[in-house]
Amino acid sequence: MAITITMGIQKGGCGKSTTTGILTHLLSRNGYRVLAVDMDSQGNLTELLSEQPSNECMGKSVLEAMQEDNVEGYILNITDHLDLLPANNFLATFPRWLYTGKTYKGDTIPFSGNPSSVLDHALESVRDRYDFIVIDTPPSLSEQTTNALCASEYVVVLFECSNWCYSAIPNFMDSIHGANEFGKRNTQAIGVLRTMNDVRRSDAKAFNELIAEDYPDLVFDTVITRKAHVGRLSLYGFNQNAELRQALGQYEGFYKELISRVEGK
Questions:
Q1: Any idea where the domains of the chain sit in the sequence?
Q2: 3-class secondary structure, 188
Q3: How far apart are the first and last CA of the chain?
Q4: What angle, 0 to 180 degrees and rounded to 10, lies between the N-to-C axes of helices 163-182 and 143-150?
Q5: CATH for 3-264?
């Protein structure tokens, strides 16, 4: 059965989609069978991995998979070891469907059950097909985020070294505890990854140290710094990218730490 990991924090600009894409790439590169799930209506992970506009997935996305409780027909193959359950902007209508049964197409698909476990239930039929399922989340504490957390055993908390992200961490940790209580996956934080670090700023250094003091057993030793070739991944992707080795370099340490923690569990 797949190990499911959510990448999250309810703040934008923390590198969630980029880190999720890189993690799925590294896992699949090393021979693991991986399903990437995009639960953000911005569709950035979808565009990063598929190298096409997320609107190309209109009508064949994670939203329809959840509404039909069947992901089989909505999985997009990326490589021999990597598949994608894509998203587009209509995923923003997910809460409306949960509470009214109305879809963005105007028809009605009644829903009854736990509104936080829709994704978990839909993924059930494919869990034995993969070694890892990795879920990208939106920058908010939304139904999409709650579903991702409740579908996951582990959560990587993305920490962009700033005051606003620092103040967001406790609420997100509470959301993880809630998923552990109300879901069935024994959801737990497996680590805090410090990202988007600007080495020129003393306040970033201070927040790096502060989060390590607050969560000494959770912070990864790896700290991801701002690099131009990482920022250009969204432009060049993972195929025929002359900068790929430089872009992936500092994430290799995080990857090794994460695998070690998962194996230790």
A1: 3-264
A2: strand
A3: 15
A4: 60
A5: 3.40.50.300
